[in-house]
Amino acid sequence: MFIVLLQTTSRFKGQLFKPSDPRQNWIFLGVMLASFLFLIVANKVSNRDSEKNKRYSKRAFRREGQRIGLTKKQVALLESFIKVYHVTKPFALLSNTRTLNNTLGQALRDISHMEAPPAVIEERKLNIYRIKQRIERVFAETNQISDTRKLKLSQDVTFKMDNGNRYASVVTANLKEFYCARVPVGKKGSQIKWPKGTKLTIMIWGADGEEYTFTSKVLGYNSVKGITSVFLQHSNKISRAYQRKFRRKNIKRPCYFFPIKIQITGIGKREKKEAVVMKNKGRMGTLIDLSAGGCSLQTTSPLNKGELIKLNFEPMKGSPVITYGKIVDCRSNGRIYTSMHVMFTRASSKNLNRINEYVYDFE
């Protein structure tokens, strides 16, 4: 047997110990290294895609919740929903997802069966809405418009003049070098044209419902598909017109507002300031849009910017709301109407929840 083995080894001796080709070795090592790097990248991509499906752990969930700005109380509320509603993808609750909307909607509906004082119920409702508002805010910050090259055809734009006048228009073309908008028309029906080189402030509405503003320079005029258009220089410096914290929704409902005067009594250390609602000076208007942070209304009898008001309205029939606010802007809207923009300064949890119920359509 030993002799046979020696013979066998001797027969394949030349093949077993044949010197290898260095070039082939380098190619082999290169392929192995490339395969190894590919596996690393694929693993990272896979982990990112399955971020919402990753294994649930309280510690990771709390850390992620706090990272996006939720309070400990709000994170704890979401954790309770995971148990009660058997949420299969808990981390989806920390993104602007259908899972979040469905879960919060279910929680709001179940609150009506909750055995607790009304104040506790209203506070819980408010926390649920605030969770949605915070996550929605984070989502908006990561998806905001950043370049006019992304403007779409027929997108509404508004030219804002230094004197406060505004002219509505639409995008008629968007090319690599510039974009075009329909030349706006003034009150008397004449076209508004600015000299070449004029810098214009332009406002647009993003998909997230926010108003954005930027500056573009007039490059010239020409016809685009039969529409007289102004050619404008691109801009990549687009910012939010207002840093709104809350979603705003259009509405058309009557409202009543009353001026508030600050009465000062006493002198020196005994001086006291008291806000008095002028109930005999109430005025009527129409709500145009509404959020938990403020509203816009149209009226024929406006008050001045900076004045305080008490506001009564019903976002939905049979759901009266009382809020207090400050007029932060007034804009003439034709010869008759003026738009007043109001920032709410005080409202009860119950009234805020009624506003939120109108603004958010949870299924």
Could you explain the architecture of this structure?
This protein has helices spanning 2-11, 13-16, 22-49, 58-67, 72-84, 98-110, 118-142, 349-359, and strands at residues 156-160, 166-174, 178-182, 199-205, 211-224, 227-233, 239-240, 249-265, 272-277, 283-290, 294-299, 308-313, 321-333, 337-346. It is of the alpha+beta class and 363 residues long. Helix 6 (98-110) runs antiparallel to helix 7. The longest helix has 28 residues, at 22-49. It is flat, with a radius of gyration of 32 Å. The protein starts with a helix and ends with a helix. The model is unreliable at 1-17 (pLDDT under 50).
Global Rg: 32 Å
Instruction: Assign the structural class, choosing from mainly alpha, mainly beta, alpha/beta, alpha+beta, or little secondary structure.
Output: alpha+beta
Q: How much of the residues is beta strand, in percent?
A: 25-35%
Please give the count of helices.
8
Task: State the end-to-end distance.
Answer: 83 Å
Report the major sheet: 6 strands, antiparallel, barrel
Helix percent reads 25-40%
| Number of DSSP strand runs | 14
What is the typical, i.e. mean, pLDDT?
Answer: 85
Order of helices and strands: HHHHHHHEEEEEEEEEEEEEEH
Give the overall silhouette: flat
Low-pLDDT stretches? 1-17
- Please state how the strands of the largest beta sheet are arranged side by side: 1-2-3-6-5-4
